[in-house]
Amino acid sequence: MNKFKMGTFFLLVILSLGCSGKFWGGAASGVVGTGAGYEYRADREMDRINDALEAGSMDDDEYEIRRDQIKRMSITQ
Q: Model confidence over 21-57: pLDDT tens digits?
């Protein structure tokens, strides 16, 4: 099984070397776009839980749990 995985890995590396710069540029922009979407969602979620804490509909313990979850999923938070 290990030989199969290594063979597949090397085959994929060899095949990817033939890809054009346009392909890699498109892949990079897709990664950046996806990351930006996750960060935007994390920012909106932080705003939502801050509002819920200020309104009193969420206690401090629940706020800390949710804030930690958001920080773990986000790079910028």
A: 666 677 777 777 777 888 888 999 999 999 999 999 9
- 19: DSSP letter: -
Residue 70 in contact with residue 45, Cβ under 8 Å? yes
Mean pLDDT of 61-66: 95
Q: How many other CB atoms are found less than 10 A from the CB of residue 59?
A: 10
Map out the domains of the chain as residue ranges: 25-77
- Compute the distance between CA of residue 59 and CA of residue 52 in angstroms, rounded to an integer: 9
Phi-psi region of 27 (alpha: psi -120 to 50; beta: other; left: phi over 0): alpha
Distance CA 25, CA 21 (A): 6
DSSP string, 36-49: HHHHHHHHHHHHHH
Task: Specify whether the CB–CB gap between 73 and 35 falls below 8 A.
Answer: no
